[in-house]
Each structure stands twice: as C-alpha cells, then as structure tokens.
C-alpha cells in the first residue's frame, strides 16, 4: 500500500508499506532455501527542477525475522553431496 502527496508543483512525497509472504514454510525451509516473510517500509519523492525533467528518489528498508531452518542429516548430506 502506498501514498503519494503532492506538496507543491515541483515536489511529491511518497510513502509505502508492504508485507511479502514467502512461499516457503517451516517444514520445507532449508539452508539451500532460507526464505522468510518480509515487511517493507519505503519513503521517497520526486522533484521537478524544470518542465522537461524529473528526479525520483527513494529508500526501502526490509524487516526479516530470524527463522528456523531444517538442519537434519538428510539436508546436510544433500548440501555437501554425501558423507
């Protein structure tokens, strides 16, 4: 979800948040596929110095929590190519 706010003829402010859910669940997560859900917060804007140019800028920060990874012998064997 995002929001643009036109502050003036030349400047527009932008903010946004997002939840990116991973298709990998706790059962299938391994060291080869360590994906997890992410939360995003973004801020930015655009500036028009003239009628024919525009400068866009932004910053996003991702929050990813620690997550369990299946480290069983089968997973480690597959990762190293065997014992």
Summarize the structure.
The chain is mainly β.
Write the topology of this structure.
Layout (H helix, E strand, L loop, with lengths): L1 E5 L4 E10 L17 E13 L2 E11 L9 H8 L3
Antiparallel strand pairs: 1-2, 2-3, 3-4
Describe this structure as you would to a colleague.
The chain has one helix at residues 73-80; strands spanning 2-6, 11-20, 38-50, 53-63. By secondary structure, it is mainly β. It has one domain (2-80). A four-stranded antiparallel sheet has the order 1-2-3-4, with no helix packed on it. A hairpin with a 4-residue loop joins strand 1 (2-6) and strand 2 (11-20).
Q: How many strands in all? A: 4
> Percent of residues in beta strands?
over 45%
Query: What's the number of helices?
Result: 1
Number of domains: 1
Specify the biggest β-sheet.
4 strands, antiparallel
Distance between the termini: 48 Å
* Biggest sheet, spatial arrangement of strands: 1-2-3-4
Low confidence ranges: none
Global shape: elongated
The H-and-E topology, N to C, reads as EEEEH
Overall pLDDT metric: 84
Question: What is the SS-derived class?
Answer: mainly beta
């Amino acid at each position: 979800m995002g929001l643009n706010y036109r502050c003036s003829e030349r400047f527009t402010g932008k903010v946004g948040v997002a939840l990116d859910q991973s298709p990998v669940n706790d059962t299938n997560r391994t060291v080869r596929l360590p994906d997890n859900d992410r939360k995003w917060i973004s801020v930015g804007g655009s500036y028009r110095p003239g009628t024919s140019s525009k400068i866009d800028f932004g910053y996003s920060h991702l929050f990813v929590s620690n997550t369990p990874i299946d480290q069983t012998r089968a997973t480690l064997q597959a990762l190293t190519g065997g014992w």
